[in-house]
Design brief:
The chain is of the alpha+beta class and about 190 residues long. It has four helices and five strands, in the order H-H-E-E-H-E-E-H-E. It is elongated and about 55 Å long.
Length: about 190
């Protein structure tokens, strides 16, 4: 036997080898959320602060970040044949989860602007909401969702932010774009004779 000839049978027994595809242990799937499962190993994700965890008086400007930071760019659109934009705004450096931010800040602001920007003699109702979650990393595709009226599934949006949270440590930016589309309602006016 030369140096190049190896007898590998001394290291293993052919009967001991398992050629099946490894399966995930049941305990693995229960212990991690889908957002955590999408993250690369060794790069733990950052938390998304819910109302109970959030203190509006704290700056949350740590470097490196200790929680998810993102921005929301939103528009209010009216559907009158074509879409016309009434207003748009950007909410920057948010740490409060999008669902909680919607309930506490954005929903009341949207209703105030709708009353202020639309004619008083007409009524408008929500038609649909389009949401896009994106990150400034070219290797990641945007998540785009359409929801009826204002029935936004914030868990989907928050799950995507958590899945990309590890990218914040690489100085990537997370953004949620929201288009609120309203349509004019037809009111039946009773005519007095």
């Amino acid at each position: 036997m030369t140096n190049l000839d190896l007898d590998i049978s001394q290291w293993y027994n052919e009967d001991d080898l398992d050629y099946r595809t490894p399966s995930r242990q049941a305990s693995d799937s229960r212990s991690t959320s889908p957002a955590q499962q999408n993250q690369p190993r060794g790069r733990p994700g950052l938390p998304l602060l819910q109302s109970a965890d959030w203190n509006p008086n704290l700056p949350y400007d740590e470097s490196p970040p200790t929680c998810i930071h993102y921005s929301i760019e939103w528009k209010l659109l009216l559907k009158k044949g074509r879409l016309s934009k009434l207003t748009n705004d950007t909410e920057q450096n948010l740490v409060l989860a999008p669902g909680a931010f919607w309930d506490q800040t954005l929903k009341p602001k949207l209703h105030q602007l709708l009353e202020k920007k639309t004619p008083r003699n007409k009524c408008y109702e929500p038609d649909e909401t389009n949401v896009t979650v994106s990150v400034t990393d070219r290797s990641q595709r945007d998540l785009t969702k359409r929801f009826d009226e204002l029935d936004i599934d914030w868990e989907v949006v928050e799950g995507q932010l958590m899945a990309w949270s590890h990218l914040l440590r690489d100085e990537k930016r997370l953004r949620v774009d929201i288009s609120f589309i309203y349509k004019e309602t037809t009111q039946q006016v009773a005519v007095r004779t």
